[in-house]
């Protein structure tokens, strides 16, 4: 017997309680026979973020993740999808692998994360060696992203921190700001543009930007859900949300 709506897969989605973008983004990418079940990682809405408070806040999210895992596992999901990206880059490839292993051991099922999903998306597009990326983070967190990418042989040519003043402020970043930032990062020396930070509303901006920049523009929510589907043997193509879901 199988779930009457999730006749292919049931996904448990882990995301910060302050995040209001990743849940609707993932639901927009859901295909027939797959259902998403969001479990909130409880965290206060940190204000006036700095390098220090940003790191402290993300580590609080990391520490509270296993409680959210316990909650969502009561619905017997087939697979977990991480709807928060910052901590999945910390400590480079080694730190990321260790973090994933801890969650998978607690859950007893597999986990798809944003960091590894960006690398998988880059490999799917092919011929990407140099990237630029934007984030809602502070410089200390961007440093971890650069480190992680370098561990996978990907050179960061440029990056930009939006330095959002609270967790909920991330979801309020305007489309114009995102577009202007992409344009400022683009260069002939950049093979692809990336975005990290799951509470930025970037999925449709990235899909549109691929047309006028004529190169891959990869939003982390798109990469993560695409990778979760592919990791579970689901090859459905989705039109309108970027080349990654349309072609790979």
Give a description of the structure.
By secondary structure, the chain is of the alpha/beta class. It has 2 domains: 9-115 and 222-240, 3-Layer(aba) Sandwich (Rossmann fold); 118-219, Rossmann fold (3-Layer(aba) Sandwich). Helices cover 44% and strands 17% of the residues. It has helices at 22-28, 51-72, 92-107, 114-125, 139-151, 175-185, 203-213, 220-231, 243-247, and strands at residues 9-16, 34-41, 79-82, 111-112, 130-135, 155-161, 192-195, 217-219. The strands form 2 sheets. A 4-stranded parallel β-sheet has the order 2-1-3-4. It has a 4-stranded parallel β-sheet with strand order 6-5-7-8, with helices on both faces. Strand 5, helix 5 and strand 6 form a beta-alpha-beta unit.
